[in-house]
Amino acid sequence: MDIDNGVEEEEEEFGFSRNYFLAKELGGSGKKSACKLSDIDLVDEQELGAAASNIEPKHEKEVVALMNSYRILYPKWVFELRCGFGLLMYGFGSKKALIEDFASTALTEYCVFVINGYLQSINIKQVAISLAEVLWDQLKTKLATTSGNLPKVQQPFSSRSMDDLLSFLNGSQAQDKDCFICVVIHNIDGPGLRDSETQQYLAQIAACSCIRVVASIDHVNAPLLWDKKMVHTQFNWCWYHVPTFAPYRVEGMFFPLILAHGNTTQSAKTAAIVLQSLTPNAQSVFRVLAEYQLAHPDEEGMPINNLYTICRERFLVSSQVTLNSHLTEFKDHELVKTKRHSDGQDCLHIPLMTEALEKLLMEIRQ
């Protein structure tokens, strides 16, 4: 009996394998579909936005009760901020309205500084400069009321280095622990703050004696942005699961609608990933084009002949054919667009905003 069962199992396995390879052969011999992603009839962006805005909210009573339950925690949150902790809000739904309500009702005694991390690009040094200016104004007011003597005029914050700004924010000027600036960061895991260097600076800012951070995250992998020191020592997070089930209306405005037309501009991060897969010479050619575009923002683009001349002088290409091969790669990845100049010649243009293009150049130079 055992022998018969073994033979039957072998026959079943053989039959399954034979059918598998037959199916592969038949599938390979068939005609391939001519359908392309570009053939999909996408909805107009305005039409899609209008349809999304007309979606009726559900479970309104339950959501209101949920928000009221969070408001009971406001005194506890303020106490934790005064003790030197940071607050990190996570959970499904936009936390923007919740955090703003907390700041406007429970933090009225403190200065609140807001960073919208859902924006595509944020200058972290400008953030530090603004925080230093706010703290300086507070110190001037405090010294004027207590001693009557105004502090001496010092070097402008805009001309200081990042280390100097951090030293000022963490200085011994603010002796009162109850006197601090509350930094609200909507989407600390957003695209404008997601890189490692920015997160390091944010952690150093959060560790300053006169800074307290209230932030929100939405990406499932957001905690991977930080190491143990950043979480427990610098940010010093108190984690709060506060699902609001609110739509991401404001945050979503700054992201392209994948089901709609009219959003072909690539982010600097995506472009950097694509460029890293290309040869060093191709990256150098792209850098020449990017630097020209930044230096001539009012022009329609860089003429191909000018690009070839510069690349030839820098020994980046040996012929027009070599340059064309690089340009083909750029166009295939939608890194470069071709425009017809008013004088009739073709010009090359990178479809990125100035700030994004500057950030991209910094990334490919590293």
Structural key phrases:
366 residues; alpha/beta; Rossmann fold; Arc Repressor Mutant, subunit A; 5-stranded parallel β-sheet; globular; DNA replication; Origin recognition complex subunit 2; DNA replication origin binding
Walk me through this protein's architecture.
- The protein has 366 residues and is an alpha/beta fold.
- The chain folds into two domains: 60-246, P-loop containing nucleotide triphosphate hydrolases (Rossmann fold), CATH 3.40.50.300; 268-365, Arc Repressor Mutant, subunit A.
- Helix content is 50%, strand content 10%.
- The chain has 15 helices and eight strands.
- It has helices at 2-29, 45-53, 60-71, 74-82, 96-106, 124-146, 162-169, 196-206, 228-234, 249-252, 268-276, 280-295, 304-313, 320-332, 354-365; strands at 86-90, 111-116, 181-186, 211-216, 237-241, 302-303, 337-340, 346-349.
- Strands 2-3-4-1-5 form a five-stranded parallel sheet, sandwiched between helices. The chain has a three-stranded antiparallel sheet with strand order 6-8-7.
- It starts with a helix and ends with a helix.
- The model is unreliable at 258-266 (pLDDT under 50).
- Residues 296-355 form the Origin recognition complex subunit 2 winged-helix domain.
Secondary structure: elements and pairs:
Blueprint: H1 2-29, H2 45-53, H3 60-71, H4 74-82, E1 86-90, H5 96-106, E2 111-116, H6 124-146, H7 162-169, E3 181-186, H8 196-206, E4 211-216, H9 228-234, E5 237-241, H10 249-252, H11 268-276, H12 280-295, E6 302-303, H13 304-313, H14 320-332, E7 337-340, E8 346-349, H15 354-365
Parallel strand pairs: 1-4, 1-5, 2-3, 3-4
Antiparallel strand pairs: 6-8, 7-8
Helix pairs in contact: 6-7, 11-15, 12-15
